[in-house]
Write a structure and sequence with these properties.
The complex is a heterotrimer of chains A (about 300), B (about 290) and C (about 350).
Chain A: H1 2-29, H2 34-39, H3 45-54, H4 61-73, H5 87-122, H6 127-141, H7 144-158, H8 170-200, H9 203-210, H10 215-253, H11 258-268, H12 271-299, H13 301-304
Chain B: H1 17-27, H2 29-51, H3 83-119, H4 121-134, H5 139-150, H6 154-181, H7 184-191, H8 196-233, H9 244-251, H10 260-287
Helix pairs in contact in B: 1-10, 2-3, 2-10, 3-4, 3-6, 3-8, 3-10, 4-6, 5-6, 6-8, 7-8, 8-9, 8-10, 9-10
Chain C: E1 9-20, E2 23-35, E3 40-44, H1 51-58, E4 67-75, E5 78-79, H2 85-91, E6 96-99, H3 103-106, H4 113-124, H5 129-142, H6 148-152, H7 161-173, E7 179-183, H8 191-205, E8 211-216, H9 219-225, E9 228-233, E10 236-242, H10 243-248, H11 253-260, H12 301-305, E11 310-313, E12 317-319, H13 322-333, E13 340-344
Parallel strand pairs in C: 3-8, 3-9, 6-7, 7-8
Antiparallel strand pairs in C: 1-2, 1-4, 4-5, 9-10, 10-12, 11-12, 11-13
Helix pairs in contact in C: 4-5, 5-7, 7-8
The chains are: A mainly alpha (about 300), B mainly alpha (about 290), C alpha/beta (about 350).
Amino acid sequence: MINFLLKRLLAIIPVLLGITLLLFFMLRMLPGDPAQVLAGQMASPADVEIIRVQMGLDQPIHIQYASFLNRLLHLDLGRSARTQNPVIQEIWARLPNTLVLAVCAITLACAFGIPAGVIAAVRPYSWVDYLVTIASLFGISMPVFWLGIMLMIGFAVILQWLPAGGIGTWKHLVLPSITLASFVVAFIARMTRSCMLEVLAQDYVTTARSKGLKENVIIIKHALKNALIPIITVVGLQFGLLLGGAVLTETVFAWPGLGRLIVDSILARDYAMIQGSILIFGLLYTLVNLVVDLAYAFVDPRIRYE
Amino acid sequence: MNTKKNETDPSEEIKSSSSRGWAKLKRNKAALVGGIFLLIYIGCALGAPVLFRGDPSAPNLMASLSPPSAKYFLGTDELGRSILGRILYGSRISLMIAVGVVGVGLIFGVPVGLISGYYGGKTDFIIQRFTDMMLAFPGFLLALALVAILGVGLNNTVISIGISMVPLYIRLVRGCVLIVREEVYVEAARAIGTKDRHIIFRHILPNVMAPIIVQTSLGMGTAILFAAGLGFLGIGVQPPTPEWGSMLGSARAYMMGKPHVATFPGIAIFLAVLSFNLLGDGLRDAFDPRSKI
Amino acid sequence: MKPNSDPLLSIKGLKTRFHTHDGIITAVDGIDFDVFPGETLGLVGESGCGKSVTALSVLRLLNPSMTTIQGRVEFEGKNLLSMDPEEMRMIRGSAVSMIFQEPMTSLNPILTVGEQIAESLRLHEKLDKDKAWEKAIHMLEMVQIPSPEMRAGQYPHKLSGGMRQRVVIAMALCCNPRLIFADEPTTALDVTIQAQIIRLLEHLKKGSNTSIVLITHDLGVVAQMASRVVVMYAGQLVEEAPVVELFHDARHPYTKGLLKSIPIITRHIKTRLNEIPGIVPNLLHMPKGCSFHPRCSQTMDICKKKSPPLIHFNGNRRVACWLASDEYEAITDSGQKPLADSIEPGQGETVQRGN
């Protein structure tokens, strides 16, 4: 297992470098003078020159990249053209909100999705199975932001049970979490169902039955435990994708998270901010994938004891 | 070998895997429903000028925000435009985007995947690291980042989402190629000196088609969702072009009093994506049941 | 000689049908046979003849939504097919158990080998955790796995195919079953390991009254282990005889064909291997009349039209062939005592198969 871990850690390094490279060049792919771009439309020519020197934009490209990496390691992502605050500060203020939302959503999704998938797989072609299948199909076909709006209309405007947006109490968390979870729960339910079906068709399940074990024991101890291995991978991947979907949900519910920050920055052409926040997102996603790989190695004894 | 004549009747002939697949697909009711929805969708897109007279983007402030009625089936939006008309014309836009996105994905993804998988070695390594880099971001975020660079509008939407799909196609195709490459008939073809290009097109590509087709159908649905997302945020297709997502975006402000403006475009997106998903699922069950997508 | 005691297992008229999109497949088409305490019965036939399905039907391990099973299966007097599912479950693993063909996939990859044996013990023998684990180690010892304490804590992927099969055998034996179905226990193994496993099974059987139904297509294994043999073809029983008589005096053309096709090392190398011409019939499109007639070298007119009945003779032999009944009829014509003891009407009708 140590080998596996080391290999995965090593594989991450080029990916991380790649992310930084991508974002480094992103800025330079924009039309116009990068210093001007970074400084923003409001900046005076003097400000632009300050930025140029600060960011070392007059240097050769490889030196620029090196200093870019250096700044990254010191957590210096530049300054927001919109608010004039350090990028890292703005991100830091909002990242926890996004994480809270994402964790709530994924927890909800697993709490409903995995049992639904298991039941659907264990009773194929029953009404539960059809219900789960149809609901899942609907869930992955629905635009997340539309669902958010519909829920808002229903629960916040018409019924007035929950607030329509913003952050504050647990009540504010309900609608955004459900919205964000909708796509994921559908996906997880489908995945769980198909993984369970595959596992239930395996020889060792027949063996377990031939030993006279109780059906519940077979489903949970023999089947589900095996099916969880690929399911964990999927859940982890979905968590990463959630971070992307958070952009839309946060916009609908005016949730002050990282996703909304990116959107506002794009609309305001605040490139230092865009670059910084996408970088952080990329980092997070890569980290999540790494954790998933590690979890996978831990849960599957074939990898753990190699 | 001397075989005695077995009494076989014609219905016993072994069916090819593709004809069995078609039979299975036809049996799949959900896929059939998806197929019908899809035909309706394409019909709306092609027949929009016939089904709705007039310019769907022409404002008519007198009728602004009218609820559904006999005159305006689905009501009007904040500029008094018929929502039904905009949805019909919007189906053209979304279909164009879906086809464009998948086109970009296929044109760039499939050849690169084939080369990467077949030739292996350094080429494969470099391509894979590049793909890793692109896949280091969740799909929608990648499209978002590309829009930030390229700018807004229909073309840039298609290019951005298309590019974000390319790594998926590369991975998918490469994975299949790696498996098919090891098949004995490929080894045999190589052994008798068949040219690489011939092997790739004649032997490998046909066996990779099934997952590509499934991914294409599902990818079209994803493309519509992503485009709508970008439109909703205001950084996709720009008004006055009737794109379903941007229609939802501008409807947000009027949500409190006039929910109909936000409801119907969303239903349109939902039905379109649903039809691609139903069809894609059916295709997968029929032609590529061991697939993991 | 027919054993004198009552049968442990009595299968009567077992019919197992699978409902598929392409039609109804009759995998087992009305078979009867008995298994007596302490004997090893060989159940022989080619792949797809229904022998595994027979075992799975008896244990009710088939998917109920896709399968219909008819008939009676009496185990120690009770009909397993009509039993309450909970009661049936208690019988599995304790009174009747099964050894499967593929050791590489029959064990759960995420449970230790010891746990897979211990859970049976905890369930059926009501042992507590520690005692069950101890006994599991003891079982591993019994099946001749070296370092059993260490092995018990290992996961299946660490064990070789032969060792895994030993574990499967240990699992099947741990609760002292009265009947074991061994479904091709050696087919998936190397020839040298095969011999080891056979010897192990023989060794384990000595001194116990356990009956084994040995399902196999390998006549060599049958010759070594079985005392009686039942031959199946296309879902039907075609011959039954004590093992020595089967090998020396097979009556059914199929059995004769199987025996002839065993290559003999000492024979002259230049002769071709014997084979039974043709292929096994498609279960969706069975031939009319005797299901073997298209491949039989002694087909008569009646074989093409009517399915032969099961003819009893010599007290403990049965064969489903018109040739044997021919003998019977020929002898009665001349007024002598008929050769056959009786004819079972069951298989005499032409049965409509397929959809």
